[in-house]
Specification:
The chain is an alpha+beta fold. Helix content is 32%, strand content 34%. It has a single domain (43-315), classed as Alpha-Beta Plaits (2-Layer Sandwich), CATH 3.30.70.
Length: 315
């Protein structure tokens, strides 16, 4: 028994191994009283935002045809404005490529009073879409192509892991891959779903449908300028802020909404509305009319008129 126990232990000597193990919270440091420091503030939970620009190749080609620089266009209308929002919501950049950005919001052990990762991620995602919409109005006036986003938002009740490229930390988290899937939009759904009050729909693939079971996925999504929040994120949001459930009728259909407020890093209060949608069925390459399952999905509402009506003070 002693041999088995000791074989599970490994003494780390290199600084690189110590740093990786410490970041993964798997390091047991047996320190003398003079060596002990109480300045480590461990990450305990995190949220991930993935914002994906739709049709970036087409936008790039249109700009090049006008002898314009696509890099400047994306920088001025997407990346730079988003950078200005990060500090307000307590977010950090994880990864950026030409048509996508991944952001993280971390919750630390010693500051539970700041555990608003999901609420602030929802607020940041809304602010990102507002920036894109405002810049699209200017682009339209100038005859330039408009940007279109799909945003996925996921919560993980644990710390992410990190590896290092020289001194640069690289985050590893299952929430990144999940947020990537939630930000996606199936092109065949765009042909049948018209833009409306809401921007997200989720469909379960029936048995035998192409793509069912691939990479463990049994659903397809419509996400055009929308924000799709995973179920774990909604559960965490209910712990962060008070949400009032409201039932309304839109286009003759009952819709369940959850209304609340959250503080940003500076303490400023922001309104938040979450739509509780029902997953519908996709079969034989078509929507099955009238079929609604008990499975829910959650969309962060961005329609300003609806948010104003729901959050305006009652007379």
């Amino acid at each position: 028994m002693a041999h088995r126990a000791f074989n599970r232990l490994r003494i780390l000597r290199s600084e690189e191994e110590l740093k990786l193990s410490r970041k993964a919270n798997s390091l047991y440091a047996l320190l003398t009283s003079s060596e002990q420091q109480d300045d480590q503030d461990r990450i305990v939970h995190h949220a991930i935002i993935k914002a994906d620009v739709r049709g970036s190749t087409t936008v790039t080609e249109e700009l090049q045809a006008k002898a314009l620089n696509p890099a400047s266009y994306f920088s001025l209308r997407f990346f730079s404005p988003i950078n200005a929002l990060l500090a307000v919501y307590g977010a950090s950049k994880v990864f950026i490529e030409g048509d996508a950005v991944i952001l993280s919001l971390l919750e630390h052990e010693k500051s539970p009073q700041q555990w608003f990762a999901v609420a602030r991620a929802c607020g940041l995602a809304k602010a990102m879409l507002n920036v894109v919409h405002a810049n699209n109005l200017h682009s339209e006036q100038m005859g330039l192509p408009k940007l279109e986003l799909g945003i996925g938002l996921c919560y993980a009740p644990a710390a992410p892991l990190f590896l290092y490229d020289d001194e640069k930390p690289i985050m590893i988290s299952g929430a990144i891959g999940k947020a990537d899937r939630l930000s996606s939009c199936t092109w065949k759904l765009r042909r049948i779903i018209q833009p409306g009050v809401f921007n997200v729909e989720v469909f379960a693939l029936a048995d035998g449908e192409p793509g069912r079971g691939e990479k463990g996925q049994n659903t397809i999504r419509y996400n055009v300028n929308g924000i799709l929040l995973d179920n774990a994120g909604f559960e965490k949001l209910q712990q962060e802020i008070v949400l009032k459930r409201v039932s309304v009728r839109i286009n003759g259909e009952g819709v369940a909404l959850h209304v609340g407020k959250f503080p940003d890093v500076n303490g400023k209060s922001h309104d938040l509305v979450i739509r509780e949608g029902r997953v519908r069925l996709w079969k034989n390459e078509a929507l099955v009319e009238g079929h609604v399952s008990d499975e829910r999905f959650y969309e962060v509402v961005t329609n300003r008129k609806m948010i104003t009506q729901l959050t305006a003070p009652q007379a």
